[in-house]
Design goal:
2 helices; 5-stranded antiparallel β-sheet; alpha+beta; 2 domains
Length: 161
């Protein structure tokens, strides 16, 4: 009889530990939260511009989720377009096309905390690859937002010679 009671207590204890561990780890997973990427606009029109000059455009992004939003793998669509990310007082290195970014720049990543905002600044420099007429350039990066793994922000202009 004592062996049966001991066996029941041991099995009950094991079940209690398993159930407790399940709730402990499940509670920690839900506390981790999810980041959520929001941007004020996905495209900025620069209008008519001259070939000479640098033309910045700023996209305001916000993490509306409840976990840090990671930004990485920043690149541009053309060697005439540069980008930088400004989070608080910190400014990223200047990004360009993947092949023109140094290994250190390619490894850059940072986070936007929940409820915080950042600026993605695109700088179009048409004099580096002179063209005439309508153009569209992009800044592309990855995030850990499950609904926005890759983000593309675009600028367009009509270049006058």
């Amino acid at each position: 009889m004592k062996n049966k009671q001991l066996t029941v207590w041991i099995i009950g204890g094991i079940i209690g530990i398993v159930v407790g561990a399940f709730f402990f780890f499940t509670a920690n997973d839900t506390q981790a939260g999810t980041p959520s990427f929001q941007v004020d606009t996905e495209k900025i029109e620069l209008g008519e511009i001259a070939v000479q000059g640098d033309y910045p455009a700023e996209f305001n992004i916000t993490n509306t989720g409840d976990a840090p939003l990671e930004i990485s793998d920043v690149r541009t669509s053309c060697m005439c377009t540069y980008a930088e990310i400004i989070i608080g007082e910190e400014k990223s290195p200047e990004f360009n096309m993947v092949m023109h970014n140094s290994p250190q720049v390619r490894r850059w990543k940072d986070t936007v905390e929940p409820g915080e905002s950042a600026v993605v600044r695109a700088i179009y420099k048409p004099h580096l690859m002179p063209v005439e007429g309508p153009v569209e350039r992009s800044v592309i990066f990855t995030t850990n937002d499950p609904n926005n793994r890759e983000v593309e922000l675009r600028i367009s202009a009509i270049v006058q010679k």
